[in-house]
Amino acid sequence: MGCGGGEASSGGGLPLQVVAPDAELRVLGETCAGAEPFLYAHATAAYAIADAAGKVVARGALPEGKAVAAFNHDPGVDRVPTFCSFTVRTGLAAAGQYTLRLGESAPRTFTFKDGRAMVVLN
To answer: Sign of the C-alpha dihedral, residues 89, 117, 98, 38?
Structure first.
């Protein structure tokens, strides 16, 4: 959902992966929202992205999250410790430094590398 005023739309462009490292038991790939202490990370949660000068260049709402494996081994059960990962299409240029503001998380600075970026919430 993009906003007016020259801000980039979050509907397309380079992907920003936003990860809630909650280690919740889930089925891999199922839709999710952040568990404790990341309850603010969920579908429809508002975010803003600012450039290095502090100007907001993108706004939107998180899409549904997807459960991704928290560990690199397969324990052989259906429900495993997972993180909830959200893929935001930023509409931003690859060059530059940006800051994500989302809910109760501290602002997180990121840059794109090889056309992708990742922010791990804290």
So the answer is: positive
